[in-house]
Write a structure and sequence with these properties.
Layout lengths: L1 E11 L2 E7 L8 E5 L4 H10 L6 E4 L8 H13 L4 E5 H4 L6 H5 L4 E9 L3 H9 L18
Parallel strand pairs: 3-4, 3-5, 5-6
Antiparallel strand pairs: 1-2, 1-6
Length: 146
């Protein structure tokens, strides 16, 4: 399975303002943040795109971003001389109301990832194959002490 970056979206009030190719990010210095079970996958994806964050921050998986954290990220990224903030599509859904204003003057972008499955036909065949029903499984027996 491979991940392919499709595009980056700039958000405003949780709505997409514009989409650009993931290879055409108009900023050379970004601050990146994510809350994933495996944040290394996001950092590797950015690296594969030639995006070297000026600063990066990791939160716990499924983190809901609060206003105070957004202000702290904006301050931290500005100290690192970032020109924009970049996160994952999943994290964009967990940003708090007013996140764009809280991050100002940094624009907020999120990266859309597409998953490609190697040997997709074999994979689909395997998951569509009927599995053993519960009644067809062997029953365990317990040995009682009598």
């Amino acid at each position: 399975m491979t991940h392919q970056a499709q595009y980056i979206s700039e958000t405003y009030r949780r709505k997409v303002v514009r989409r650009i190719s993931a290879l055409e990010l108009p900023y050379s210095r970004v601050g990146a943040f994510c809350a994933l079970g495996n944040p290394e996958s996001f950092w590797r994806t950015l690296d594969s795109l030639g995006i070297r964050p000026a600063d990066r921050v990791t939160f716990g998986d499924h983190h809901a971003y609060r206003p105070r954290e957004m202000r702290r990220l904006a301050h931290q990224f500005q100290l690192a001389k970032a020109e924009a903030a970049l996160t994952t599509e999943k994290d964009a859904l967990n940003l708090c109301e007013g996140c764009v204003a809280l991050m100002a003057p940094l624009p907020v972008y999120w990266l859309k990832i597409r998953i490609e499955i190697d040997r997709e036909e074999i994979f689909l065949s395997a998951i569509q194959r009927p599995s053993l029903s519960h009644s067809a499984l062997p029953r365990s027996t317990s040995l009682g002490t009598s």
